[in-house]
Design goal:
heterodimer, A: 7-stranded antiparallel beta sheet, 7 strands, about 30% helix, globular, B: alpha+beta, 3-stranded antiparallel beta sheet, about 65% helix
Amino acid sequence: MTKPTAATRSIVIEREMPHPPERVWRALTQGALIEEWLMENDFQPAVGHRFNFRATPMPHWNGVVDCQVLVVEPSQRLSYSWNASGEETAGVLKTVVTWTLTPTKGGVLVRMEQSGFRAEDEANYQGANYGWQRYIGGLERVAAGLG
Amino acid sequence: MGITTNELFSTLADPTRRAIFERLCRDGEQTVRALTDRAGVSQPAVSKHLGVLKHAGLVRDRREGRQTHYSAQPQGLAPLIDWMSLYGAFWRERFDRLEALLNRMDQ
């Protein structure tokens, strides 16, 4: 269900960790532990549960992520929607984060895939030449300075 | 609201329009007259550019007496943020923190 369609792109990060899958699962699913490495949250490992991640607001983003739990398979797979919240960014970012834990000889392979980055936006970024990138970077600095 | 990335790019592709937006970002709120004095084009042309910028959500206007004051809305640039590179860096850093936490849990 998280397989990206032709129209979207994903970020995938994989890392083998020398820990039992059960320990990683706890770090991924217990609110207080999640907060230690990811963000403040009201996560519950129950399919359908709606929750938020809250980070420090930054320019153009209020720091809130709207989420809903999609898949809970203990010590194997966890998936939730990950949508930017707030007036400025709602609808701009609609993604799904999926964690997959695969036991290995020395521990567990932790795989995180964030899928759903729209190709429409990506095409624009690729079409954007260096000048545009620099221009936007400059505007971001200006915007940040507006306080 | 709901403006596409393409529309944003085309809005900012015009150098005069971009200069007006940059000026508002840099120097804060200004009247159409003040902007016209520096833009090198006529006041109707400046007003037209401001209308396009307003439609794109990049400026906001405020009437005061007979003058209209314009200010930049840089958050209108949000659709241009490169979410993929933002999150790529974000997750790598969070993986480091996750590993550090797992090591602490081990003790």
